[in-house]
C-alpha cells in the first residue's frame, strides 16, 4: 500500500511523469 501513497506524492511533484509512475506502480501491485 506504500505505492499508492507514493503515487499521490508524485502527482504533486510531476503530473506529467505521474502517468509513467502509475503504470509502474500498477505493475508492482499486481506482483504483490
TrEMBL record:
Look up the domain of life of the source: Bacteria
Can you name this protein? Answer: Uncharacterized protein
